[in-house]
Amino acid sequence: MNDTPLAVKTVTDLKEHVVEVISDSGEGAQRCGQSLGSIAARMGIGTWTVEIIPAEIRPPARSVAGASGNRVRLGAGRITNGGDLTHLVVAFNEQVLLGRVRDGELAPGCTILLEDLWRSHADPAIARAYAESHGKLVQAGYRVIEIPMARECAAIVKAERGKNMFALGMLCSIYSLELALAREQIALAFGKKAQSIIDTNVKLLDGGYRWAQANLDFKYRIPAERPSEPQIVVNGNTALALGVLASGMEICAMYPITPATSASHYLSDVFEKVGGIVHQAEDEIAACAFAIGASYAGKCAVTITSGPGYSLKQEAIGLAVMSEIPLVVINVQRGGPSTGQPTKAEQGDLMSAIFGSHGDAPKVVMAASTIEDCFYSVITARRIAETFNMVVVVLTDANLATSQQPFPRPQFDPAWMAPPADQSAVPEGLEPYDWDAATGLARRFIPGQPNGMHTVTGLAHDRASQVAYDPQINEESIHFRSLKLAALQRTLLAPPLVGPPEGELLVIGWGSTKGAIEEAAASLRGEGRKVSSMHLRFLQPLPPGIKQAMQGFKRVMTIEGNWSDRPEDQLIDESNRRYSALAMLLRARTLVDVDCWSEVRGQPIKPAAIREVIRRKLACPTQP
Amino acid sequence: MTDTACLLRLYEEKYELEDYQGGVPRWCSGCGDNAILAAVQRLCRDEALRPEKTVFVSGIGCSSRLPHYMSTYGFHGIHGRALPVAEGIRMARPDLHVFVNTGDGDCCSIGAAHWIHALRYNMHMSVFLHDNQIYGLTKKQASPTSPQGTRSNTTPRGAWLQPLNPLSVTLGVQNVSFVAQAVDWMPDVLYDMVRAAFHHPGFSFVRIIQRCPEWLPDQWEPFIKDPKRILRLDQNGHDASNIDRAREIASRSDPIPVGILYRNADVPRYEDLRRSPKLRTPQLVRAGLEAELDKFTVWPEHAR
Question: Chain B within 8 Å of A224 (Cβ-Cβ)?
Fold first, then answer.
């Protein structure tokens, strides 16, 4: 084909652009967006891709709440979050687009590439709705470009399908992406399908590219820098599953729940190839108990869930804490409480992760803050679980679960594997809970070890694992289980400070907000503001050095995706304000007057929102 | 014991009852749990089960104290969840003997979902339902198997509902592979059922009707006094491969059928369907991981 531009156009150089592809469910916008992200990543353009997912599997066609697709942030260098408002949208109908407008996702003047087949639709109601919406969009100042996508596709493949690959072709032209890479990407994406299907999609891609070259009068270019080392492009859930694969665990017990399940889908497909098993249990409690049984028997196991499932597992988690059986629990957080917002992001489970289960149930709580972290956190979690005979909770969220960001390809380390279960005879005189006075650590006897026979129990027990109601023994055992957290804490490094060690404000965060917080703080530093940030990977135990870091700053605040009372509310004052989870923890731990700002909109927190919050904060010197 | 001594012991393969006896049982005198404990200890001795290779898993309740009275490995977990714990153990360790002791509250009430699914999974383990038709440890509340009219602390004017029939429930589940019933006051039958359950290559379920001398002291007296109110299936020509007949028998409670109602050794075991025959080595994991990473890798050049 002829790649030479047919229309006279200017190529605009951009530092970054946010692009969306949206359609009704099932029209392939997600594949289009993901492919766009992958092609850009292969060229060396920074990318962050987020899925746009409707709540239903098949919402009615052309419905405002039914947008399905992808949002891709393209930029120079490393992109760490989804960014702010959208600059360019490809929409397969105007109704799903209205949903995005309503949600305030489009930047003023956003370019809209709109399928125009609806204008002449046989159903006058649809044609009218289209014309009205089109008028409103133009009036609102958007640059609306109507494109006969279906008709163009039909001319290429004699069918109205395949619009998504046509759109991909257009986007490749618009963003000056290499068509050869796009063709390769299609071959990869459709790798399992017949060659004829790949050929058809490549034809559509070429068609879209050609059409945009000939008919659009603009083109963008984002600086690309080929990565010097291989990069992995996956979403957070796939990274979690790869982490399970690499962690040496071989049993994952789960129950279907959004947004965690896609991790188990992928793991179900690949785990068996390395001798692993994904057990879909009859319920969340059974999944947790199954994992505990496997761990008890010497094969440290993982259970993957989301909020409601995490609640259901609480009693079983307490059993693992009490009996000191290693266990990894992954909670891909979603909106709550109750069923909440299954497909939306929230950081609402930190307190239940730390304090969940009745009684004193100390467990380790980690939070992944990048896609790469999702991979390594599972490996770290398994090692901590087995070293300390503890429950390790790994928190991620719906934002990480569905976002893609390239990270350096991991190098497998055999040390990631769990050692085989000890089956040697237990020397005479040793007891199953020989708690070390300094660390609380005890060895563990695994079934099959001669001389180690004992009954583990969720009841209070002594060193011999005998049921004990003795006040002293009860207190001693609680003491030792708690000490293990301090023992772990002594091995942790102080979290790094991003920005200078002294200034006006220190922002502390955890989990998926990392990229947005750091980006906002960096841009404010660029404006001369003295703002630094710190992001926590360990929430329980909290690492050392936080309080010392705080002392360099006039004020400290957290930014989180969970609820905190708004100080401006009439009834809210210092005596009743509910702080965000991490703020509450830090206040308790450091006795520093830590403020917070939070948002529970179900969307990833945008850097612009954080910038605004910090500016307001700095402009208000009377507040803590 | 040293490793060498253990190896020598392997050759001996001979154990005494004392080798399986743990703490002194704290059950009430006359409690049917004592009979069940005696039967499983006898089984362990007769089958020369290595104590370190044997795990008794339980939930919560009087029945579930049993692991503490064994000197094998034991797992005394949480209420209703003995079966999923045992399934995890079985999946991880095909080399262990796995037993489950559960009660009518533990199995048929709070753990009922796990019970039904455990039957479906048909994982290799022997499950003993200690059914005394009452909550004992929490002091006399009606259980799902309490007969209608049972007066208890939560049903002071008598239990309102017809009792749940554990045999019928069990035999109604697809994939069921072994169902038997015994009564605590017939130790030989009880032992035979425990033994048959142990030898069944799948999920064996034995409902054991047991007395609770504390809360329902006279419940079973009429049956104990009148041998005609016990139906010995082994002496009545019951064909244990006939599930329809087993269901008919299960639906009757007077006379009490004792023996194997149903047995099918050919039902596939979930662990056999799921466990990989591959030896899980770091090399295998590395190869698997690299192959997966290849699918998602963006190489520095166009293609590798």
Answer: no
